Amino acid sequence: MSLLSVENLTVSFKTRKGPVKANEGIYLKLEQGETLALIGETGCGKTTFGKALLRLLSKNVKFEGRIFFRGQDLLSFPEKKMRRLRGKEIGIMLQNPSLALNPVFSIGEQLSEIYRCHEGCEKKEAEKKAGKMLELVEIAPSRMAEYPHQFSGGMLQRVMVALGLALHPALLIADEPTKGLDPQTKEQIARLIFKLVSKETSALLLITHDLEVAKQLTERAAVMYAGEIVESGKTKELFSNPKHPYTQALLAALPENGLRAVPGQSPSFVSPPSGCRFHPRCAFRKKSCSQIRPKMLELETGRKVRCLLYENYENFEKTEEKANAAT
Ligand SMILES: Nc1ncnc2c1ncn2[C@@H]1O[C@H](COP(=O)(O)OP(=O)(O)O)[C@@H](O)[C@H]1O
Ligand SMILES: [Mg+2]
Which atom of ligand 1 is the closest one to the Cα of 48? Predict the structure, then answer.
């Protein structure tokens, strides 16, 4: 049984302009201790996916499909059961620490609160555990009485790591943990997360638009475009030999590839392009790309791509279901 198995997940929001399918037909698996990067441009649906796993989305949301965590369907959990799972089984580092942290409580109080609520610890015991956790993220426990505004961006991100891992969850979802940090701090945070998830043997879902960090930190990667997964595979292989034209365009933004941005604009979620969603921006498009919605094809074990260019790929004999089942 996989730690996490997402099956045909569609997440839509009801909006005044019509339904927005921010995630569509997602299949994804994560085994115990495994690290997976979810990459793609801003606005493609990455945060929606991370929050969907913990059902942390606004009320206008509708889910289809299944999210299995240790074989249990999270979408069928009552809210009370879900609340017990958050933090304890699945930890999350939200995208923006200054919004996630409460400005009127000290760092120590916010960390201690977790142990008091989830583990029923007394004040002293909770403070002791909070201090230990701060030490793990290389912050002196003597700074526990300070408030979020007294911490630098890098330190706040460390606090987020501590909060995310405080209860030793089996899975940590880290949403853009290095956003807005200078290169040196970014590297430190990336290393720290990697060190701690390895130590705790937690699985990591790293949501990022930062390709360098994804490349450094993860074993597997999945590429999202306009709410769909368009390619997945081992991070090393995906980066050295990207198959999907979107992945190829995305990786051209890496410094070693010339820092080129993906040409064109991200599509609308209210009325996405017909056929392949990437076709209006694709340098290799054929006529059929605007008409046929490509299926996810398994090129070889663990390597998948959603693109009509690979339709006649020699190894392709498998149906979409088989490909999805192996994700
Ligand atoms: N609560 C919501 N209501 C309506 N639309 C939403 C909501 N949350 C996200 N979206 C839309 O879903 C799409 C994906 O957003 P998001 O998941 O934040 O992308 P990313 O994290 O990749 O930048 C965007 O078009 C965004 O406007
Ligand atoms: Mg986001």
Answer: 17
- Distances, alpha carbon 207 to alpha carbons 18, 40, 178, 237, 283, in Å: 27, 9, 10, 19, 27
Report yes or no: 40 and 46 within 8 Å, Cβ to Cβ: yes
Which of ligand 1's atoms lies nearest the C-alpha of 44?
22
Q: Say yes or no: CB of residue 268 within 6 Å of ligand 1.
A: no
Write down the pLDDT at residue 36: 98
Asked if 161 contacts 93 with a C-beta cutoff of 8 angstroms, the reply is yes
Segment 270-288 shows an average pLDDT of 93
β-pairing, 171-175 vs 203-208, is: parallel
Query: Residue 1's pLDDT is what?
Result: 92
Ligand 1: centre distance to CA 23 (Å): 9
The predicted pLDDT at position 66 comes to 98
CA atoms of 85 and 106, how far apart (whole Å): 25
pLDDT tens figures, 43-65:
999 999 999 999 999 999 999 99
Domain borders along the chain are 4-104+147-325
Q: Is CATH 3.40.50.300 what the domain over 4-104+147-325 is classified as, yes or no? A: yes
| Token pair belonging to 124 | 């002293």
pTM, 2 dp? 0.92
Cβ(235)–Cβ(251) under 8 Å?
no
- Which residue has the CA at smallest separation from atom 4 of ligand 1? 13
Exposed, middle or buried: residue 142 (CB in 10 Å: 0-12, 13-18, 19+)?
exposed
96 confidence band (pLDDT: 50, 70, 90)? confident
Ligand 1 pocket check for 272: Cβ under 6 Å: no
pLDDT at 74 over 60: yes
Ligand 1, atom 5, lies closest to the CA of 13
